[in-house]
From TrEMBL:
Protein name: MBL fold metallo-hydrolase
Cofactor: Zn(2+)
Key words of the record: Hydrolase, Metal-binding, Zinc
Pfam families in the cross-refs: Lactamase_B
Gene3D superfamilies, per the entry: Ribonuclease Z/Hydroxyacylglutathione hydrolase-like
Organism: Bacillus kandeliae
Length: 210
C-alpha cells in the first residue's frame, strides 16, 4: 500500500491519496486547495478513480468539485449526509466564517455497512456516527489501515458539539468498529498524525476505562 497525507486548508484537514503500482488512486476528503492537490496528483502521475468522503463537514469537501470536474470521477458519501454537500448550513461553512462551501450532490450514496470495490481497491465500510450522523470509516484490510475521518485521532476523539453530534454514539462507534480491528491497524485521521489501534487502546484518555 502507498498512501500519502496532504494537510489542506486553514484547518489543515488531512486529504489522503491511496495509490497502487498501476498509478491509480483513491482520494479521501479533498478539503481545500484544489489547485495544489491536482498539481500534486499530476506531478506524481496518478490517475484518480474516485473520491471517498468520510463525512461532509466543510473542511473535508472544499476541493470536491475541483477534483471531480478535473478527472470526471464519482464522489461517495453516506446517505445520512446526502444533502450536506449542497447546503452550507448543514456542512457548517455558513457558521465558521471561512466562506460558504458547497458542491453538487454525491454520485454514489452509501446506505449500508458493506464492502465496495473500486478498481483493485477494496474497502470495508463502517458507519461510525457521533462526530456527524453520516461519518464513515473506510477499512483497507489489504494495507492494514483505516481512514477514520474525524472519529478517532491520536490521543483524542472527534468533537461532538456540532449539529447531530453525540459523544455516547461516537464512543460506541469507536469501540464497536475501530477498536475491534487488528491491533496493528494504522489509523489515518482527518487531522493530525497517524496512529494505530493498539496505541489508542493503550493510551487514549477518552477511551480508557469505558
Amino acid at each position: 500500500m502507498n498512501w500519502s497525507q496532504l494537510p489542506l486548508g486553514t484547518l489543515q484537514t488531512n486529504c489522503y491519496v491511496l495509490s497502487n503500482s498501476e498509478k491509480e488512486c483513491i482520494i479521501f476528503d479533498p478539503g481545500a486547495e484544489g489547485d495544489r492537490l491536482m498539481e500534486w496528483l499530476h506531478a506524481n502521475e496518478l490517475s484518480p478513480l474516485a473520491v471517498l468522503l468520510t463525512h461532509a463537514h466543510f473542511d473535508h469537501i472544499g476541493a470536491v468539485e475541483d477534483v471531480r470536474n478535473a478527472f470526471h470521477i464519482p464522489v461517495y458519501l453516506h446517505v445520512e449526509e446526502k444533502d450536506w454537500l449542497m447546503n452550507p448550513s448543514l456542512n457548517g461553512s455558513e457558521f465558521f466564517h471561512m466562506g460558504r462551501v458547497s458542491a453538487a450532490p454525491a454520485d454514489r450514496i452509501l446506505t449500508n455497512e458493506e464492502e465496495i470495490q473500486i478498481g483493485n481497491f477494496q474497502f470495508k465500510l463502517f458507519h461510525t456516527p457521533g462526530h456527524s450522523p453520516g461519518s464513515i470509516s473506510y477499512y483497507y484490510e489489504r494495507g492494514q489501515a483505516v481512514f477514520s475521518g474525524d472519529v478517532l485521532f491520536r490521543g483524542s476523539i472527534g468533537r461532538t458539539d456540532l449539529p447531530r453530534g453525540s459523544r455516547d454514539q461516537l464512543i460506541e462507534s469507536i469501540h464497536r468498529h475501530l477498536l475491534s480491528l487488528p491491533e496493528e491497524t494504522i489509523v489515518l485521521p482527518g487531522h493530525g498524525p497517524a496512529t494505530s489501534i493498539i496505541e489508542e487502546m493503550e493510551s487514549n484518555p477518552f477511551l480508557n476505562g469505558f
